[in-house]
Amino acid sequence: MNYRVVLGHPGGNENVRQALLALQNAGVLESFVTTVCAEHVPLLALFPRPIRKGIERRSFSCVDPRQIRSHPFQEVLRVVGSRLGIATLTPTIDDVRRSLDRHLLDEVRRSRSRNLAIYAYEDNAYATFSAFPSIPKFYELPIGYWRAAHTLFAEEQAINPEWAATLIGPTDSEEKLERKDIELELADRIIVPSEFVRSTLPMKWEAKTTIVEYGCPPPVKEAHWKGSENGPLKVLFCGSLTQRKGISYLFQAAKRMGRRIELTVIGAELVPCPAVRRSLTEVTWHRTLSNADVLETMRRHDVFVLPTLFEGRALVVLEAMSQGLPVITTANSGATDAVVHGRSGFVIPIRSSDAIVDCLEKLDADRSLLRHMKAEAPAIAATITWASYRRNLIAVLKRYQELNQDGWHSGTADGIADG
């Protein structure tokens, strides 16, 4: 592969880090455009611990800092405004993403590398893709298509109006939704993490869509499990406290199970919702934990439940399995290759507290089945690695180049029209 890739993303999700590592290892990373980069923050050790820890989550140690272009201003304003309760006066997440898109555009324009390619993500690619029609454009869609989401969310709002406030997606402006479709249309290759995501896309984009599945962290040994052999079943949920994650169905199931389970919830409220707040009073709740603490908490539980309505490929499911937890989730999690029904967990219908109760009752009544699943979960996780993801991602980029040698851009970005 003889081209250089400029990748842009505003955050530090694990799939982004792994994509960066894949490009770095293949020797094709031109630069990474982002918002906050811990490696670019001077005197970080002198910051107060809470601030320092937040910045350290934006570390990209897998990449040479000289290849990172950080633009923190908008993101810092957004985070500070949220912490101070003045979010309406500071940039929104969409503002940050659009700003990042413009910085990505500028980075591509400045590059002097030949055979340049762009790798961007949903809501971060419109300006850049529009400006450079001749440069190969790879587009990662980490979650299902927005039109499919809106249809499902409209149904859910009618079914559960008490939880409707937490369904944030339908509030997107028409202009933002149009940008999403233009990004998809302009992309030369759409990369998705699961068959579920591909199934939500219109057929007109099917031919240029490829699945590259995200991987699992290294699995733990059986000696590290700390779940219970008897007593209440220790149940864990980790994710944003929105109805997209199916949380009302989890709370309903927990109420029906009563003292037979102990439910722990890790996740922040994205919007005020009385139904969420009432439900949290009946469980153990952690608003936020570091990734290391999340993994440790997983090892102290028996089963992970994510009754999600709409995902891409739920990384938290893969993390839970790697820590020895069987998983109860839906096909819409995008992880049914890992959650093998009856072996490493259970795949249930969406919107079914009955199904959650049924699975929990089986595991509560049959601890030998629970032990078997706790062994199977990390065994399967060990076969779904980030190394495989990195190999597959580079193979997709190589294959695109092989199929498009004649049309591959062979100059720099100079002279290409502004967006």
What gyration radius follows from the Cα positions, in whole Å? 22 Å
Question: What structural class do helix, strand and pairing data support?
Answer: alpha/beta
Major sheet characteristics: 7 strands, parallel
**Which percent bin holds the helix content?**
40-55%
Would you count the extended β strands for me? 13
Strand arrangement across the biggest beta sheet = 3-2-1-4-5-6-7
Number of domains: 2
The name of the CATH topology of the largest domain is Rossmann fold
Average pLDDT reading:
91
CATH class of the largest domain: Alpha Beta
Tally of helical segments? 15
* CATH structural architecture of the largest domain: 3-Layer(aba) Sandwich
Order of helices and strands: EHEHEHHEHEHHEHEEHEHEHEHEEHHH
Strand content: 5-15%
CATH superfamily of the largest domain: Glycogen Phosphorylase B
Unreliable segments of 5+ consecutive residues: 407-419
Shape: globular
Measured distance between first and last alpha carbons: 28 Å
Q: What would you say about this model in short?
A:
Helices cover 41% and strands 14% of the residues. It has 419 residues and is an alpha/beta fold.
Please outline the helices and strands.
Blueprint: E1 4-8, H1 14-26, E2 29-34, H2 49-56, E3 68-70, H3 73-83, H4 93-110, E4 116-121, H5 126-131, E5 137-140, H6 146-159, H7 174-186, E6 189-192, H8 195-200, E7 209-211, E8 233-238, H9 247-257, E9 261-266, H10 274-280, E10 284-286, H11 291-299, E11 303-306, H12 315-322, E12 327-330, E13 345-348, H13 353-365, H14 367-381, H15 386-403
Parallel strand pairs: 1-2, 1-4, 2-3, 4-5, 5-6, 6-7, 8-9, 8-11, 9-10, 11-12, 12-13
Helix pairs in contact: 1-15, 9-13, 12-14, 13-14
